[in-house]
Amino acid sequence: MEIKAIKVSGKHQVSIENTSIEADENECLVKITRGGICGSDIHYYQHGGVGDFSLQHPMTLGHEVIGRLYPSNQTVAVNPSKPCGACEYCQSGRSNQCLKMEFFGSAMRNPHVDGGFAEYVKVTKDQVVPYDETMSQEVMAFAEPLAVAIHAVNQSGGVVGKKVLVTGCGPIGCLIVAACQAAGASEVVGSDLSERCRDIATAMGATSVLSPMDTVPDLYLKEKGYFDVSFEASGAVPAFHSCIDMTKAAGALVLVGMRPGMVDFPLTKCLAKEINVKGSFRFISEFETAVRWLETGKINPLPLLTKVFPFTDIIEALDLAADKSKAMKIQLSFED
Q1: What family name appears in the similarity comment (predicted)?
Q2: From CA 52, how far away is CA 50, in angstroms rounded?
Q3: Residue 173: pLDDT band with limits 50, 70, 90
């Protein structure tokens, strides 16, 4: 089958290319209808790589995609993870740590793993999660980032009845805010430099918001902190420090945001306060949970949606997505 796909080949080198695709008896084809642009897509576009992984050859972008099974036309969310199922991590229920993971739109492996920004993609049958066809594409295209947020909440050990801080209210941070509310937190405070991001965090369910440029309320710093659980979703060192200061002794801090070379770890404070610091990377079974939460309306992600572009306008879409003063989440439509 001849299709069009969005390929990145280097810094500011993104184009729509003709390619071919075929599925074997163990795979299925999905006609992609909608895709969300993630921060990693922007990094590949702007820098030709992500972190320590640079492009070695052209790669199809995208991992936040939904579509319709071909030829049945069943609406499905596409899980971009393809773990091996056999390594020690897969066997122990931690497939997100798979030693041979093939993840959509990633240059971590060579040859790179093509992503989902294409007219059709081929996947294994367990990578598709059917959902009610009456649901809007705008909502369901948030399945992958919501799965990241739900996994972070699970990594915290639970938030029922707890006071929660979320630093960095971009798309993932705001989805963590919403996931914490849905999971029973008693209070969720969002923190971000941007007033626009703080407003969206409020729309996503934050009980209050604060700016790190303002004086931190004494309540949050008294004695040994205020929050039972903190989520650091910005990747900024100052935000990490503020989480350590505001998290209660014996509380949990979940690291979600990534930036290359993140250092300056306040080890003494973590040790003295016995803070449980945990990383959170992608997701496991949370992908299907995210689909169900969106399908049932448990989470409304639409305050995050800035604009939808036809996939043929990929350069304009990426440029807007990269402008954090104007955009939160940009989606691409692959339908005529």
Answers
A1: Belongs to the zinc-containing alcohol dehydrogenase family.
A2: 6
A3: very high
Residues with Cβ within 8 Å of residue 16, at least 6 apart in sequence: 4, 5, 6, 7, 311, 312, 314
Question: 290: closest CA among 129, 74, 103, 75?
Answer: 129
Please, where are the H alpha helices in 208-330? 218-221, 237-246, 267-273, 286-295, 314-322
Q: Average pLDDT for residues 270-286, to the nearest whole number?
A: 95
Residue 25: the pLDDT is 87
- List C-alpha distances in Å: 35 to 143, 184, 256: 10, 30, 22
- Collapse the DSSP code of 313 into the 3-class scheme (helix H, G, I; strand E, B; otherwise coil) and give the result: helix
CA 126 to chain centroid: 20
Look at strands 64-70 and 75-78 and give their pairing.
antiparallel
Task: Please name the residue that has the structure tokens 């999660």.
Answer: 129
- CA distances for 11 relative to 140, 204, 241, angstroms: 30, 34, 33
For residue 80, say if its preceding peptide bond is cis, omega within 30 degrees of 0: no
Please answer whether residues 63 and 6 qualify as being in contact, where contact means their C-beta atoms are separated by less than 8 angstroms.
no
One-letter amino acid of 30: V
In the chain, what are the domains?
Answer: 2-142+301-333 (3.90.180.10), 146-279 (3.40.50.720)
- Give the max Cα distance, the chain: 64
Tens digit of each residue's pLDDT (9 = 90 or more) over 123-163:
999 999 999 999 999 999 999 999 999 999 999 999 999 99
Whether 62 and 105 have beta carbons less than 8 Å apart is answered as yes
Query: Using the 8-state DSSP alphabet, how is residue 113 labeled?
Result: B
Q: Do 305 and 35 form a contact (C-beta atoms < 8 A)?
A: no
Reported as a pLDDT band with limits 50, 70 and 90, residue 100 is very high
Length of the chain, please?
Answer: 336
- The number of C-alpha atoms within 13 Å of 170 and in the hemisphere containing its C-beta is 24
Residues 6+ apart with CB under 8 A from 139: 294, 300, 301, 302
Does this model's pTM top 0.90? My answer is: yes
- The arithmetic mean of pLDDT across residues 175-196, rounded, is 98
